[in-house]
Structures are given as structure tokens and as C-alpha cells.
Amino acid sequence: MELQQDPTLLWFIAIYGIVMIGIGVFMSKKVSGSEDFVLAGKSLGPFVLMGTLLATWTGSGSISGGETSMAFSYGILPSLMMMLPTLVGIIILYVVAPKIRAYGKFTVSGILEAKYGRTSRNLASVIIILAYVGIVSYQMKGFGFILNLTTGMTVQAGTIIGAGMIIFLAMIGGLRSVSQTDAISGFLMVGGLIVTVPTIIMVAGGWSEIVANVPESHMTSTGGLTTVQMIGYLLPSLFLLLGDQNMYQRLASSKGDKSAKRAQIGWLIAMLIISPSISIIAFASRSLFPDIDPGMALMATTVAMPMAIGGVLLAAAASFIITTGNSYLLSAATNLTYDLYGKYVNKDASDKKLLTMTRIFIVALGLFAFIIISYFPTVLSVQMYAYTVYGAGLTPAVLAVFFWKRVNAAGGVSSMVAGVVTTLVWEIVLQKPFDVNSVVIAVPVAVLVLIIVTLVTSKKGRAAADVRAS
């Protein structure tokens, strides 16, 4: 089937954008201070919290990278396996959520400082900003893909428009407005995908016809990937989710533990619908449009379906991208405000000043994200890089705070350094040997360093104490 642009689909995105901006402006008038801006006054009930967790996690990484690119490039089974890390991560966060709320911190850096000291906070802030700006950048490019598909506009021009929407919605009302737009977007996602799956299978001629039109390797368990390569695609999202500051902030913004638990159960159920749906749609796209960019697979199906259904799916895709982008942008700006500006530049900053600086940092980081996306060839490549920088650099140290009382500052800080350095060396210096994502190397290194340094320094500390006592 020939891929033809359908500019009329842009109306669906335009309507979605107008509604989101309207809600953002309305909710911004309710922001009463910096904490309200960052944590929505800790007032989120289970319905809104579930929607914002869902919408924040499922973004361009899923519809232009993740499940979409995996289904198109390697097959249905490898793509379905991409769902497993998210499900495992949600279950673990369900256990950790009460502890996260008990810390009462704005950022993951604040949690780490309470356990490991100021050095860990500074290092964590840099890691978070580095990773989150990367994540925001490919949301912008994902939106560029959408406008290119629907109108013929260049991806670059579409990326500029996406950047503008993401920056504006994050800046106008913070989590107070982002959570509301996220909730609407989350349920739009679920509804759009439920309608699309049976429709695209019929349009493609049925499941047997789809299977007949894809390479034989696309029906195998790994799609031609080695076991190590497959693990390299699965681990980054798991370790990002387990230490994701965005999720920690949202869980901290709930009304209470009961609301957080109900929201996470709803999130788990929604992901059981969303992830397989994305995989099936992208796999059908491989049959219909075998020569397109893998990142375009899901969005390309919008022009092959009846306009109403294609438009709803396209609006859902836009909602994936915008909500994830503004959430990660807001979170990264929070680190700059509270962990760097408030700690070192202006320790006596008023609440109003902190709010103003957060908005300024949102714009600055948004512009930076727009600049760096041009350095990565695909959404999937920047997704794996950003996830691993965060997952290997922070998650082992963060989880140790909650699950290993013995861990100390030396172990935590050393683990963070080891995770980031290993990732950068593997990806940039060595240029990803054997085509294996750095997570396979970086996470084990970070965990081993955490354990070994903690044990060695603990023994030295006890030995020194024994000498002083004698």
C-alpha cells in the first residue's frame, strides 16, 4: 500500500492541542506557590494520578521507538516482550510508594542526599538533567513525525511546533495543569488504541495476510536479535522506571497511600491494553508499509484507516508525546531550581522566586532539548541512551536507599559514577561494540561497584573504630 499524506487529519491534532492549552491556562490560575507548581499541592486522587502516571510513561519512546520500532524491525514477539519491564517496574513501585511519600522530597536528588550526602545530590541532578533533556528531545521529534505524516510539513518544522507546545504546557501551570491534561490524554490513548487494533487488522486483510507479508524472522521469539541484544533493549526501560523522578514526584503528589495504590493498579491494567495494542498496530504497519522508517510505523496506519478512526489514533499519538515531554521537562527544571539554584546560587530565594526560576529553566532546557535531537539518527537510539544514563547512573543507588540499610555514601556515589562513565564509554568511546546496548554492561557494573565499595568501606570503618576503641 502506498503511504499518502492526509492533511485533514491535522484537524484532530489541532482540536486536541486547543483543548490541552485551554486546560493548561485554566489550571495555571490555581497555582498558589512553588510546591503547588511541582507537586500539585499533594492533592491528586486515584483517577487523575493514574492518568498522569500512564501518560507520562507512555510517550514517543513507545510510539516512535520502543514497541513500535521493535515490532516493525524485529517482529511481534520481541515487541510484546518490551511490555514486561514496565509491568515489573510498576509492581516494584507499588511496594516502594509509601516509602517515597514518607521522604517528602521534591526530587530523587533530595532522597539520595538524605542517605548519601551532598555530593550524591549534585551528581544525581546532573544525571537527571542529562537524561531527561534527551527524553524530552525525542518527544519533540516524534511530534515532528506526526505533522510530517499528516501535512507534508518537514520533520524539522513539525519538531519546532512540538517543542513550542511541550515548553508552553510545562511552563504555564506545572504539575497542577500537567496532571489534568495527562489524565485526559491517558484515557484518550486507551480509547484510541482499543478502536484502532481491530480496524487496522481488517484493513490489512486479516492476521494471516499480515503474517504472510512480513519476513519469517518477524515471527520468531527474538526476531533475529541475540539474547544479549534483546536484554539490551529490555533493561533500560525497567531501570529508568524504577528510579524515575517523574514517577516519584507523582506518587508524592497523591492525596495519600490509598490513592497512590489504586492509581498504580489502574496504571498496570491500562499498560496491559496499551503496550500490546501498539505492538499489533506497528506489526500490521510492517505488512502495509514495508519501506517506511520504523519510527513512523504506528502513525503511518492513520492514513490507511477511515478518517475518524485514524484521526483519533493520531490525536492519541500526539497526546503520548506532548504529555510525556512536558512532564519530563518540568521534572528536569525542578532539579535545576531546588538542587542547584536553591542550594548554591540563592539560598534565601522566596517561594515566588523559586516558581519564577522553575519556569525560566523549563524554557532553557526545552530549547536545549530541541538542539540536541539532531545528533541522534533515530528516536530508538536516543531513547536507549537516555534510559541507560539514568537507569545505570541512579537506579541502583536509589533502590539501595529503600532496600539495603547497610549501603553507605561511598558505595552510593561510586555506583552513580560507575554507571554513567560505563554508559558513556560504551556508547561514545567504543561506539557500542557488537551492537549491544550499554545497559547490559553499565547496570551490572553499577550494582557491583555499589556492593563492593559499601562492603569494603564499611569494614575499613569498623576496623578504624576498633583501633580507636583499643
UniProtKB/TrEMBL annotation:
Membrane topology: Multi-pass membrane protein
Alphabetically ordered keywords of this record: Membrane, Transmembrane, Transmembrane helix, Transport
Pfam families reported for this sequence: SSF
Gene3D superfamilies noted in UniProt: Sodium/glucose cotransporter (1.20.1730.10)
The keyword Nucleotide-binding belongs to this UniProt entry's keyword annotation: no
Residue spans crossing the bilayer: 6-27, 39-59, 71-96, 123-147, 153-175, 187-207, 227-244, 265-284, 296-322, 360-378, 384-404, 411-430, 436-456
Location(s), subcellular: Membrane
The UniProt record lists the keyword Membrane: yes
Family: Belongs to the sodium:solute symporter (SSF) (TC 2.A.21) family.
UniProt-recorded name of the protein: Sodium:solute symporter family protein
Gene source species: Halobacillus kuroshimensis
